[in-house]
Design a protein that fits this description.
The protein has 155 residues and is an all-beta fold. The protein is built from 1 helix and 12 strands.
């Protein structure tokens, strides 16, 4: 039994400062899996029967635009999962995109409040045949749009 992978990763981040407008940070992380070979079978871009129903999109990308001005910060994040093919049925599973939005206000060194929306556009997970859950909740967002709020308190 032999597993070999081939591909590449790219991570980059840049910060722009605009005095009164605050600072903006643009970051990206991309992984491209050209080959995920197990026993001479390439599973890259597929949803496998082997590996406990593992979903292996060839491309995963995350891009984040952040903004900070004094005690206030916000971020918009985009996630891309490329299309895949289900191994048994040969079903084409489309690419998926997710947008998340978050914000934080730092009241002091000891108190901050934050909140946001995950899956802002309420992207539905793809329906996948031969999955007992009709999708892969380990890879795709099966919960839909979610709101969150919280506080960080340091004692």
């Amino acid at each position: 039994t032999e597993l070999q992978t081939k591909g590449w990763d790219l991570t980059t981040q840049y910060r722009f400062d605009f005095d009164r407008l605050g600072s903006f940070t643009l970051g990206a992380a991309v992984t491209r899996t050209n080959n995920f070979d197990y026993n001479n079978v390439n599973y890259a871009g597929s949803i496998t029967v082997d590996f406990n129903r593992l979903t292996l999109p060839k491309t995963r990308a995350n891009v984040r635009l952040g903004w900070e001005l004094e005690n206030l910060s916000a971020a918009l994040s985009w996630q891309h999962l490329s299309s895949t093919t289900e191994q048994i049925s040969k079903q084409a599973v489309p690419a998926v995109q997710y947008l998340d939005l978050s914000a934080r206000y730092q009241f002091s060194d000891k108190l901050s409040l934050y909140g946001g929306v995950s899956n802002l556009l309420e992207e539905e997970p793809p329906l996948i045949r031969n999955q007992w859950t009709n999708t892969d909740p380990n890879t795709y967002d099966a919960m839909g749009r979610q709101y969150f709020v919280g506080a960080t308190i340091k004692l």
